[in-house]
Amino acid sequence: MSNPAETARAARNAAASSSQEGANQPLRLHQRCELSSYGQGEILFVGQTSFSHGIWVGIALDDTAGKHDGVVQGKRYFTAHPGHGIFVRSSQVHIEEAVAPPAISRAPPAANRIPASRSGQVLSRSSIASTSRSVSPNKPAARVSRPSSILPPPSAASAASAFGASARQQAGSPQKRASLAPKTPARTSTAGIASGASTSALNPRTPARTATTATGRAPQSTVARRAVGTASSTPGSTTSRATPANRTPKTTGTSSSRSSRPPTSFDVGEGEDDDDLMAMIRAKLRIAEKKREEDRETIREAERIQQESEQFLVVKPKMAAKQQELQNELKDLHRQEREWNTFKEEHEREMAELTDQVEILTLDKEMAEERAEAASEELQLLKDRVEELQLDIEVLREENARFESGPVEEGEKLSVGYIQLEKQNERLKEALLRLRDLTAESDSEQKQKIAAMEKELRELDEIQASYESTLAKLEQSEALLEDLKIQLDDALGAEEMLEQLTERNMALQEKNEELRLINEDLEALEELNDELEETHIETEKQLQEELDLKEIELREYHLRNDSLEANIVDYENTFVQFREVVLNLQSEAETLRNDKETRDVDRAAAAAEGQAIANLNLKLQSSTMKSQAKTIELEIGRLEASQAKRHLDITSVYLPKKYFEDDKDAVESLLFFQRIATKTEVIKTVVESSTDIAGSLVGVIDERLITICRMRHSLAHFIASSRQISALVQLASIPTFLKSGRMFKELVSIERTIDQHIDLLRREELKEDDCAKDYRRFVKMLEDFEFALLDGSSESIDSDLAAKELGSATLFDLDLDTIAAALGFSKQAQIGDGDTSGLLPTGDIDMRLNDLDISEVLFTPLQELINHIRSTKVPARKLLRRLAALYANDEAVKMEAIVKLPGLGHCSSQLVAFASMLATSFNEYVSSVRTNKSTFELKDILALVSEAAKEAMSSASNEDGSAQMSTSLAARAAAAWKPSLTETTNLGQTVTELLNAATEQDNVHKISGVAPWLGRVEEFRQEQDTAADTQRNYLKQTEDLRDLYKQIKVRDEVIEENRIKIERIAKQLQRSRQDNETVTTLRDDLVDMTKRMKAYEEGNSALQQELEQLQIQYERAVNDGARTTAGEGAAANAPSSDGAVPTLPTNPTTITPSGFFNPNMPTSGNYEVSYLVDQIEALRGAIRYLRLENGLIKGRDLLAQVQQLPAL
């Protein structure tokens, strides 16, 4: 048999080549195709979509393995049934190759029909040519492909052997194959049918082959990929050989017959002509050559893609440089933006400051002007007033002087008034002069101020103009900034696209390298795993055997350790006794040694004592030997324990990592609660043994005993809570178990405090009150922990029922001891020292009993309460032992049978509070009476009892009301003690009922459940069992990932190629736009040049006309010159009338025929024709020069315009 790994690898290679062939074929609508993950279907859409870029293929699947019905994001691309439509890439589509359409229109006869089990696969659609399906070589049963397949039997053994080898080589490739129909129709043979039947009967594993004849050849492109089974037999043989199903899958199908007759089945054993075989081999050879050509084309295409990739790598640095340039430009733009923003802010700030300054100056100016005007007016008024007063003073002085000198006449008085008027007139003139001067000064100052303000106003206008220009520049800058931002966004988009493509390329390269390395590592790990698997099984067996042996040895060591500990206790006791005996013997020996001489009579007794000593020595020696043996066994036990711990540490390394993440903490939490419960039990046991509470309750009771009883109650409550949580975690669900591991670390401080208490107890420094307070706080923490642990859990938990029952019974038993101690202490409170029976008076203390007997009112109820508690103690002890036995056997009393137990604890707690308050109040009252030497009032004692009952017990309220209504002190005393007596009586009855219910076996049920760590172990085992499947799935997924990577690589190459093409097209489009712009510009220039050329042509025609006119004038001038010459000759022969000879000026300035002045033109009488010709040539040269200069000017302008065009 072939190696499965090689078979799988060959299958994957074949699938990859098949997918490549399918990808290279063109896609057409309504073609049949096949998808590797979804099955077969029909192509209904090929093109681009709106939900994603690229070419997508819409397929309607035959099965409900799709995702939609052809509608994606509200847009319909094709129509399909719901759940049958799907979109894939073209690289994932494998086109099925069609065969020739069947030519048979009528059904075959019933005798020659294909069996019903194969008909559903053989008979396919009659209108559409179906294609073959791939056959997996790993399946034992071969799948039937759609097209028909006829295996032509060879006619000779040599041909069969030659062709069979190639067929077996091609049989392992699971590619799509088409049938090759023989040229000649098959012959129907009953012998062949019989032979097929006999072959099927002899070899049931060989599947029967049924086929019909075909009219034409199948496509030659798929014949070379088809596996053809061969058989070696003679025409007359009745047996045939078939290739095993696990090596060569057999395919069956149907094809149309050449004739109109129905197809007939035939046996493989029938022979055919060698021509058919040779034709088929030639066809396969041609197909192989064609396939080889296709492979060459594929290689050339791959080389072309590689060259394009190299070109992309060459272009990549340029793109990076362009990116760097864009980044630099971006930085410059950012810098310019920051500068413009800074300039804008500074300018706005300066404008605001200038505006504020102008406003402030304007206000200051107005205020200064107003103040100046007011001050000037006030100053003028004051001056006028001063002058008037001075004038009045002078006038008064003169009048006074006159009156002193004598009486004054009326004329003198008038002269005095006149003088005053004159002086006033002078003063007014002076005031006018001063007013004129002040007005002139004020006008000059105002003019200066107005000039200054006008100057400031002009500056303000300039600043305003500057502000407006700056604001316009700012708007332009903002517009430019927006444009730059848009360009920046475009640059960033291009940069991001480039970075994404670069990162994607690098990521794909890294992923390819990683996958290659992973493949190599996995191959090496696969080989290593095979070797390790072999050694692992052997090692596991050996470790299991060693583990069993170690467990047996560990149990033996535990037994030996227990016996050694018992022997150690015995040895210690023996040592103590031996030391005592040795001391006694030493003292006696010393006495005997001193009295030996005097006590000869006692020799016999001494001999007997010596014999006793010898016996004791023998016993001591034997005990010493036993202690040595126990010591040896103890040391060996310690060694075995250390070895077992070491073995556990080594074995824990083999545990999975998942255990150390969660389960380790959960296991430690379980051990933690058990450990703190045990340590607290040790403290409780030591305290009880050192105090002897049971003996103290019978004798004299002190106040410390009550404190110890309270501390013991707190310890027991803590132990019960710890055991309850431990039992809860031990049978909890896996989430609760793991949750306890995450939460218990908050309680680690409790264990440290317990260790401190143990250390204090070892040094005998433990304080009962502090210890009780700590443990009451610990109980509160444990209750909160339990509530948080079960918070949100819906599971019904009764695993802690036994622990709860045992804890409640223990607390009730301890409450009884506390009640007895408190009541006994209350009874023993004494006022004097003369009597020990109770609260009886002494000689120096007065007692007011109100004609009542204190024994009946006080001592008798106390003793009755104590008796009730003692009688209740017996069934409570029995109930405690019963529940402890059930707890040890993982059993508990049903809740409905022991439902009164929590209420019993509540009642006992009330009685504890009542007894404690009673003891405290009695002790304080007696101490105050004894200290103050006051009168002992019985009614005060009864009031203390009533108050304690009212505060501690809920049932005392009604009794207290009835006692208040009664006026008799005896009735009040009875009412005060009645609630406590009733409660103690009810306690005894309730405990008896609970004991009876607990002793009945019908009320007992077994606490069962699965430990959470066993479930976790099962999960670990399942994960370990699925490791092999996971490895296989991983390998399969790795292969799928490799195929997907190839497809992605091809797709990315196509995308990259399209991107490069798009970039090229974009560049070409940009060039074409620039060319169009250049052509448009050149066209405009051409139009301008055409216009200029027309203008120049018009000028040229004008010059030509002028030249023709000059030519005409030249001819006229020649004619005139000839005539003039002839006239001059005649005149020379005949003198003039006045006797003078006419002459011409020597150098006259003449006008040329063209209108130009030429001072050098000869004007002699003999006007030469050659000179005129030279003048005409000169004019033509001037015209040519003007044309050339015009052309040069045009060319220079055109060249300047061309140079201004952007570079291509």
Automatic annotation (TrEMBL):
Keywords assigned by UniProt, alphabetized: Cell cycle, Cell division, Coiled coil, Cytoplasm, Cytoskeleton, Dynein, Microtubule, Mitosis
InterPro entries given in the database record: CAP-Gly_dom_sf (IPR036859), CAP-Gly_domain (IPR000938), Dynactin (IPR022157)
GO cellular component: cell tip; centriole; dynein complex; microtubule; spindle; spindle pole body
Feature: compositional bias, Low complexity: 8-19, 106-136, 156-173, 188-219, 227-265, 1142-1153
Region of interest: Disordered: 1-25, 106-275, 1126-1159
BP terms from Gene Ontology: cell division; establishment of mitotic spindle orientation; nuclear migration involved in conjugation with cellular fusion
Top-level taxonomic group: Eukaryota
Pfam families documented for this protein: CAP_GLY (PF01302), Dynactin (PF12455)
Signal peptide boundaries: none
Coiled coil (UniProt feature): 285-574, 1055-1120
UniProt-listed SUPFAM superfamilies: Cap-Gly domain
Localization, UniProt: Cytoplasm, Cell cortex; Cytoplasm, Cytoskeleton, Microtubule organizing center, Centrosome, Centriole; Cytoplasm, Cytoskeleton, Spindle
Domain named CAP-Gly: residues: 47-89
Main location per the UniProt record: cytoplasm
Family: Belongs to the dynactin 150 kDa subunit family.
Protein name as annotated: CAP-Gly domain-containing protein
Organism from which the protein derives: Meira miltonrushii
